[in-house]
Amino acid sequence: VDDPQAAVSVKPDMARVWYSAPRGQRVRAFPAGFTLIAGDKAATTLQDHAGWRCEFAGPRAPLSATPPDCATDEAMVGVVRFPNCWDGTTLTSPTQSHMAYRTNRTCPTTHPVALPEMTQEVFWPSDGQEHEYALSSGNPAGLHADFMNGWNQAALRNQVRRWLNRRG
After folding, report:
1. Cβ–Cβ < 8 Å for 87, 29
2. Which residues pair with 99 in a beta bridge?
3. For residue range 142-153, what is the model confidence (pLDDT) as tens digits?
4. pTM to 2 decimals?
5. Paired sense of beta strands 117-124 and 76-81, if any
6. How many CB atoms lie within 10 A of CB 168?
7. Looking at residue 134, what is its pLDDT?
């Protein structure tokens, strides 16, 4: 928002969400009725698991709290990484206390059930120029995403077994 009076809405070009499992770790399918929010819409500084990067920097590039100045031919990417350690009982929580992030490739004892890791990337066009951006939450650092398990449970279990828990 360079001039609040002349603010324009910029629509994303694409969103990509993928599921993965840590190497050598088996994961359980999301249970029916499971919900999750990752990121903090009220954040004003860089979050541990949500931020921005340029498209060609690659998925492992460090994230920033604000959209970077990307080249004209590459997108600005908003990234949200969801926690994948579940307490094993609570399907939803307003504080997200039913979930935790793994550390050192291990889920904490308070959240011992490994679920698929989800990463969401949303791609916005870049004109190669510097701008001041704001999300609908009011600032660019407030990246967040919601997940509500709407999978057919049998299909989900099959996909987790076939693709995430396969040996090799």
Report:
1. no
2. 86
3. 999 999 999 999
4. 0.91
5. antiparallel
6. 2
7. 84
Measured between alpha carbons, how far is residue 128 from residues 45, 74, 75, 143 in Å? 23, 8, 9, 21
Tokens of 70: 């990307």
Query: Rounded to an integer, what is the distance from CA 166 to the centroid of its chain?
Result: 24
Could you give the count of Cα atoms lying within 13 Å of 79 in the half-sphere of its Cβ? 26
Phi, psi angle pair for 164, to nearest 5°? -95, -30
DSSP 106: B
Give the 3-state secondary structure of residue 53.
strand
CB atoms within 10 A of CB 68: 17
User: Residue 134 is which amino acid?
Assistant: A
Q: Which range (33-37, 123-127, 141-145) has the least confidence?
A: 123-127
- Report residue 156: phi and psi, to 5°: -65, -50
